[in-house]
Amino acid sequence: MGHFQHHVFFCTNQRAAGESCCNALGASELRSYAKERIKALSDTLPGPTRINTAGCLDRCDLGPVMVIYPEAVWYTYVDKEDIDEIIDQHLVHGRVVERLKV
Ligand code: FES
User: Fold this and answer.
1) How far apart are the first and last CA of the chain?
2) Which top-level group of life is the source organism from (predicted)?
3) Which atom of ligand 1 is nearest to the CA of 64?
4) Nearest to residue 23, comparing CAs of 56, 50, 68?
5) Which residues of the chain have pLDDT under 50?
């Protein structure tokens, strides 16, 4: 296994007004929220977990999107409750959150 148990990439790309993009749907704010929660939960996580910022991941119409490796599972989310569920289920317990998969 590598140094990290999980790498989470949040697209925070901002496109021109009127074009669909993850940042217009709150991606940066919710990425920061996820980072804080991961820090707070570090003793509960199965291993080191990194929250990264990514540019456009080329799935703009499904956004906002994130992808978690090594499983390569893609999610969308709309609010902090969705982020909490992804963290608690996927990152802590290793269970894919089917309702948020894209
Ligand atoms: S702007 Fe997020 S996937 Fe393209």
Assistant:
1) 26
2) Bacteria
3) 2
4) 56
5) none
Structure tokens that stand for 102 in this block: 């894209």
Location of structure tokens 């140094």: 3
Atom of ligand 1 nearest to the CA of 20: 1
Short-list 98, 88, 99, CA closest to 49: 88
Does the CB atom of residue 65 touch ligand 1 within 6 A? yes
Residue 25 — φ and ψ, nearest 5°?
-110, 25
DSSP states of 52-93: EEES--S-GGG-SEEEEETTTEEEE--SHHHHHHIIIIIIIT
Q: Indicate which atom in ligand 1 lies nearest the CA of residue 13.
A: 1
Q: Which two tokens mark 47? A: 């291993």
Q: For the domain made up of 6-100, give the CATH fold.
A: Glutaredoxin (3.40.30)
Cα 45 to ligand 1 centroid, rounded to whole Å: 28
Reported pTM: 0.95
State the pLDDT at residue 1: 53
